[in-house]
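User: Hello! I'm new to structural biology and keep hearing that structure can be predicted from sequence alone. Could you demonstrate with DUF4314 domain-containing protein? Please show me the input and the output so I can see what each looks like.

Assistant: Of course. The first part below is the input, the amino acid sequence of DUF4314 domain-containing protein. The second part is the output, the predicted structure written as tokens.
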Amino acid sequence: MTSPTSNSDPEEQPAADHYRRGDRVALEHTSDSDTGLRPEAQGTVRRYDPQGQVLDVAWDSGSQLSLLLGEGDRVRRLPAPSSAELWQQVRDALRAAGAAAGRDAAGWWTQHTLGGQARGDVTDIARRVLSGIEDIVPMILDGLPTADRYHLAEDPERYAEHAPPDAPAWQDLSAQQRDQARWAWCDGYDDAAHAEAERQCRMLLHPDGDDRDLTHVHPDRVRLGGPGVFAGDWAWQPNADGQMRVPVGFVGILVDLWNGWAVFTCTREVAEAIVADQQAARDSLRQSLAQGGLPEADLDRVVDQSMARLSFDGDAIVADFTRLEDDPDAIERVSPDTDGRYDVMGRSWTWLPVHPYDCDRIAGAIPDPPGHGHAEHGPHRTQEAGD
């Protein structure tokens, strides 16, 4: 008589090197020297070709590297997750899928609200959106792409598309799990859509097209010892649309207040930009006077009586006020401090912190807020073999 164990169908007993879709694996070795994957990197099996011994894995890092098990690549099968861990993976996957949909929706919103299909002053719209998001203004938030949480019908097709391969089927979910699945997708959608809309607004308003959050250098946030963007109270000019703008703002550190005006220090680069801006203003005034009929012989004298001369003498800035103040001794030298920073016309000019989005250009690099390093975006890595 044959023993019960000998009746088992060999096909029902998966071999040690057989992998199914959804299996979790950890990398032990690969001969691909170009991959960024390292031993113990984890991923989920997508396909397995037992004849060619090719294992397609969706790695958690985003890599799509396929492994050639017949040529020495090795992985280790990980234990199956518990039901609680699997359900968390389901919710994470649905949230990620919702986030992708939210970002797409925000792209359409940008086109219609800020882009080529928008009407009116889009910069004013961007300002109001950023302010509304920061202050949690319902009227503004309601105008952003938002998942229809309360009328979203059950969507087993969406669930099947985005849930992990070994997730329970939709019809097997409890009512609570279905609610959790829908809300995971909706939460991902809303968070990503609002973040992308906010990023697009910042890019539109920032003079350099940067998408960083500059809340910490808004005028009402600038504090002694902290960074800000500064300009003279005289600097505001109307642009082609009639809006009052600051042609250039200067990045610095607020070190004092003088009669209500800002005193700040800046780098050599920013100091050079201030000197150049002053010279450009003098040139503009000179040209205007010449067009008004002032004789050439009087132009320099009248300009000097209206605006100081700034120039560099080695490391020091020379500020010549002699004609402006009718005093032959009215010459100041501004030397850098021990850190190489300049206080350009502090306590002499009426500087004030300005909103970075009110500037057409910003001289100097705005630092990140404390504890919030700005990740540099390097080149995108090309997809690896097997995708």
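User: So the tokens describe the shape?

Assistant: Right, they're a compact way of writing down the 3D structure. Reading them back into a model, for example: The longest helix spans residues 83-113.
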